[in-house]
Amino acid sequence: MFHAHNIIPLCSTKFSWYSWHIYNYRRPCYSDWVPKLKFLGSAKISSKNMITIPKAAREKLRLKAGEFALFYERDDEIIVRKG
Question: Where do the structural domains in the chain lie, given as residue ranges?
Answer without folding.
Answer: 4-82
